[in-house]
Amino acid sequence: MKKIFSFAVIALAALAMVTGCTPAPKQIGLQLYSVNRDMKDVDASLAKVAAAGYNVVETLRSPECFGLPAAEFKALCDKHGLKIVSTHHSIAMNPENEAEVMNQWRAVFEGLNVMGAKYCVIPSFKLGETIEDLKAVCDYFNKVGALAKEYGLKLGYHNHAFEYEVVDGQVKWEYMIENTDPESVFFQMDVYWTTQGGKNPVDYLKKYPERIKMLHIKDDLVIGESGKIDFEAIFNQFYKNGYSDFVVEQEMPRGPQDEDPAARIARMWEGVAKSAAYLQAAEFVK
Prior knowledge:
By secondary structure, the chain is of the alpha/beta class. The protein has a single domain, classed as Divalent-metal-dependent TIM barrel enzymes (TIM Barrel, Alpha-Beta Barrel). It is 44% helix and 16% strand. The chain is built from ten helices and twelve strands. The strands form three sheets. The chain has an eight-stranded parallel beta barrel, surrounded by four helices. A two-stranded antiparallel sheet has the order 3-4. It has a two-stranded antiparallel sheet with strand order 8-9. Helix 9 (231-240) links the parallel strand 11 and strand 12. Helix 8 packs parallel to helix 9. The longest helix has 21 residues, at 261-281. The radius of gyration is 19 Å and the shape is globular. The two termini are 21 Å apart. Mean pLDDT is 93; it is low at 1-20.
């Protein structure tokens, strides 16, 4: 896969030489969790994100992001040509004080409106051990999603592998899709965790074409290097379904315990840059 990456970069350079210009940049997104270990200087790190080849970001939390109020964070993103598409944020259920929980969600949605985002995605949630537990979660998501609509936003849920466990004869993730309101709740499919859960992302894109409105594009580290995930088939089906919003997510690079922290941070930035270059060069990414 490293050879594929090299050929992709060479192809882009060759095209620039022949035509006298570089191809128009695609909308390549990054979940900022990917570089969370180096966000102390938010301005400098956002500059690195843009330099790495991204022009869209999904952030963490709202109405504050990395210690900055929504307006200040958006101003820095604007400065570096980064459009905020979404955030990851979660608030636990509290049936005994639902009004306060909904007020907390209102603050989240107000912040996202300031940032100009489209989506608010719950990154993970305690789903319980029974269908009754899962139904209560779905009912909660429906209420929060209905509130999000009042702010012009869409509420999503992001999967890991555990959502593909079976409870009372039903796959949890499938039950969630089939028992949430399509008008209030969508799903952000993490293609890596879907495969880790023993499922085929393309099969689910075909089964639920209207419910999966956003993708997390993820690999062992650099997108496309492992050869384990058929990104071309995934993108083709996602576009066929009529959707196009995606962001790259990269876990912190693994290495020996005694590795120099600065070296690991450098590998982190190298990985996100290589992923952007791979997607920019891939003909199947529009």
